[in-house]
Automatic annotation (TrEMBL):
Family the entry assigns: Belongs to the LeuD family. LeuD type 1 subfamily.
Species assigned in the record: Prevotella herbatica
Domain Aconitase A/isopropylmalate dehydratase small subunit swivel: 4-123
Protein name: 3-isopropylmalate dehydratase
EC number of this enzyme: 4.2.1.33
Residue ranges that the Swiss-Prot or TrEMBL entry lists as coiled coil: none
Length: 196
């Protein structure tokens, strides 16, 4: 899942629902595993499949008109429990970016820790994205992490987004927290030696 992140341009999958919680993202019955593998198969499991395992054709992830590595979601995405498995499922499915007007803090950090970029935009910009996707399911969005700008390529409108400088560095260099420490081992050892 470790991938360097720079600029991503992609079509989008719209999920215009508010208050999507982590139990809807990955139901609790799938939390027994401690390995990240396979969680993408059960992303939005109860919305994607009927109880008998058959596909719900009306759910957006099952609609062949929509594809891409950007999920555009309604306000308050990732609320509920703090399960990291929800971010594992989003990353495992192949999403690189989730755009919303508000994320639950813990879920937002879990996404960042799993190399998925949560992009917070204004409610007006979010609605414009939903409208653009509805008008043209092949429209694309450009997410420029170095410049912290997201652009609706259909309307050419852009918004700047915020991200913690440390997490930005890690995403752009494909580093998790341990990798970052290893990369800076000499500095850590130097500081330790100077402060004995």
């Amino acid at each position: 899942m470790k991938q360097k992140f720079n600029v991503i341009t992609s079509t989008c999958i719209p999920l215009p629902l508010e208050n999507v919680d982590t139990d809807q993202i990955i139901p609790a019955r799938f939390l027994k595993a401690t390995d990240k593998e396979g969680f993408g198969d059960n992303l939005f499991r109860d919305w994607r499949y009927n109880k008998d395992g058959s596909i719900k054709k009306d759910f957006v992830l099952n609609d062949s008109r929509y594809s891409g590595v950007i999920l555009v979601a309604g306000k308050n995405f990732g609320s509920g429990s703090s399960r990291e498995h929800a971010a594992w499922a989003i990353a495992g499915y192949g999403f690189r970016v989730v755009i919303s007007s508000f994320f639950a803090d813990i879920h937002k950090n879990n996404e960042l820790n799993n190399f998925v970029l949560p992009v917070v935009v204004s409610e007006g910009f979010l609605q414009e994205l939903f409208d653009s996707i509805s008008e043209d399911n092949k429209m694309e969005v450009k997410v420029d992490l170095p410049n912290q700008v997201v652009t609706n390529l259909k309307t050419r409108k852009s918004e700047r987004f915020e991200i913690n400088g440390y997490k930005k560095h890690c995403l752009m260099n494909g580093l998790d927290d341990v990798d970052f420490l290893v990369e800076n081992r000499d500095k850590v050892e130097s500081w330790e030696n100077a402060n004995k």
